[in-house]
Specification:
This protein has 22 helices and 23 strands. It is an alpha/beta fold and 540 residues long.
């Protein structure tokens, strides 16, 4: 397939990138920062990205007295001789030249760049075959998430690689992070790359919601039927017509650990001594520490402080503030049934779980429940993976699990990341087959160590310098990617980089519409299934 020529390489260095002079008929207005282009060398094809553009003149005196009101004939006469343009391109991948990419299968795809082309190598637009060679064809675990900004053809994410490591979706408010997350989650469900546990703080993922354009769009439960189970903290949600849930979750006081409470230091206004008091309580009472603290009257509290050396004023303050936790409707002394164990059983059977928070959508509720559930799920996965390592029986291997969280900086800021379950998961690099998909509009609030461990990053428009720096933490070629990130529009446009794509690429994200619904469901309407029967089958 013939490529459209843009210019020739005139200068460059391996580390600094290449300079290409555009042909006289090629305007800079046809090109975009971050665009995917191809350099045809003598022996290799170089898949590259445009990182900068410059306007130049051959005769500096032309700038001293530029033509005023010049006709198109004069402008065209100057173009390519007295005036010309250059672009900076950064080669990202290379492969030996061959007819119709005959070497791809033997090489396993394009390889990292290890050299640069000679002078006058030809710069071309990438065509459909180039995108297919680099990003693969749709099918199997390859899932189309968008199209190039200047072309209308699918660009795929390798979902098996996406779920191998934790990932991040970033962008300022209004850039469509939630809809992009829906697309990725639907892709994971559709391809079977992993199972999902989604903490749905704002009740956006299970059932239909109205977009900013006023269009009602389907939720994952409505797309995939009984393959998606919905739990809720809000008992009223269990009976809403068309939005009923599978189970109402209750958290027992005995399930709340010290780290869960310390994570809420800001929300509960805990003092610096709270950690010491909680430690003493846990040492004395074990899993019953919180219930015993809340049941203490003044005399028993004084006795506890005298026996353990705890500060009485700090203990009284802690008791008073933790009563806020007990007041929550979903908190009971002992959970009547282990719904979290049921969740884990559903995940093992390939079900996808959405935990809605309903009316309980404060940060206190979200951080407390998400950390408790994730800790128990991770512990279960750890035990199962250790069992699999002992037996080496494929039947004992758990399905990979992706945990999705919003407001990620609350769980993964530098102070919390080392003690929360989410911080532990982010640093484990899929050791126990559990990874995170974090969604946040302020990535600068996330611990840099956690950011550096993210395998794949999908970022929409960011304007704060600190947020841009954070998204590029631990990424090679930062200066080239910064230009691509800064050039994004605020709607639908994203930069995808990392483990699940062979090279960074700018995309217009896939539309979440009827065509998408048909693509991921095979044209079926799962809402017509007997969902109650499916639940009875699952739990016997």
């Amino acid at each position: 397939m013939q490529r459209q020529r843009l210019g020739v390489i005139t200068d460059g260095a391996f580390n600094a990138g290449l300079t290409a002079r555009l042909d006289p008929g090629c305007s800079t207005e046809r090109l975009r920062i971050g665009e995917f282009v191809v350099v045809e060398g003598l022996e290799n094809t170089y898949f590259s990205m445009i990182s900068d553009m410059q306007l130049r003149v051959a005769d500096p005196t032309l700038l001293a007295d530029p033509p005023r009101g010049a006709s198109s004939f004069v402008m065209n006469s100057l173009a390519g001789t007295s005036t010309y343009a250059t672009v900076q391109v950064k080669p990202m991948l290379m492969m030996p030249k061959g007819d119709e990419f005959a070497f791809l299968e033997d090489l396993g795809g394009p390889q990292p760049v290890r050299t640069i082309p000679m002078h006058f190598a030809v710069l071309c637009e990438a065509n459909e075959a180039d995108f297919g060679a680099v990003f693969g064809r749709e099918g199997g675990k390859n899932f189309a998430i968008g199209t190039p900004l200047t072309m209308d053809l699918p660009v795929c994410l390798q979902l098996e690689r996406f779920v191998e490591r934790s990932s991040g979706i970033f962008g300022q408010s209004g850039t469509g992070k939630s809809f992009l997350a829906r697309i990725l989650l639907a892709g994971i469900i559709h391809t079977g790359a992993a199972v999902n546990l989604i903490f749905d703080m704002h009740n956006e993922y299970a059932f239909d919601v109205q977009s900013e354009d006023g269009v009602w769009v389907r939720g994952l439960r409505q797309l995939f039927g009984s393959r998606v189970m919905v739990y809720s903290l809000d008992k009223e949600a269990a009976t809403r017509p068309g939005r009923s849930v599978d189970a109402v979750l209750r958290i027992g006081l005995n399930q709340i650990k010290s780290e869960d409470i310390l994570l809420l230091s800001d929300e509960l206004d805990l003092t610096s001594t709270a950690g010491t008091v909680v430690g003493l309580l846990e040492d004395r009472y074990g899993d019953e520490w919180l219930r015993r603290l809340l049941d203490m009257d003044r005399s028993s509290l004084e006795a506890f402080c005298a026996e353990t050396g705890a500060h009485q004023g700090a203990t009284e303050a802690l008791q008073r503030k933790l009563r806020e936790v007990k007041r929550q409707e979903y908190v009971v002394e002992h959970a009547p049934a282990d719904a979290i164990r049921d969740m884990i059983g559903a995940l093992e059977q390939g079900k996808h779980i959405i935990l809605q928070f309903g009316r309980h959508n404060r940060l206190l509720d979200y951080m407390l429940v998400a950390n408790i559930v994730s800790r128990l799920v991770r512990n279960s996965y750890r035990a199962k993976v250790e069992r699999y390592e002992e037996t080496k029986d494929a039947a004992d291997r758990p399905r990979p699990l992706v945990i999705t969280i919003e407001e990620a900086h609350k769980f993964l800021n530098p102070a919390a990341a080392r003690q929360t379950t989410f911080g532990i998961i982010a640093r484990e690099l899929r050791k126990f087959l559990v990874t995170l998909m974090i969604i946040d509009q302020r990535p600068s609030g996330i611990d840099p160590e956690v950011l550096s461990q993210l395998g794949t990053r999908v970022s929409g428009k960011l304007t704060e310098e600190s947020d841009i720096e954070a998204v590029l933490t631990g990424v090679g070629g930062r200066s080239f990617l910064r230009a691509a990130l800064e050039s994004l529009d605020t709607k639908q446009e994203v930069l995808v980089m990392g483990h699940a794509v062979p090279m960074p690429v700018q995309l217009r994200s896939r539309r979440y519409d009827e065509a998408f619904y048909r693509a991921v469901t095979g044209g079926k309407d799962p809402t017509q299934r007997d969902h109650k029967k499916d639940i009875l089958d699952l739990y016997g």
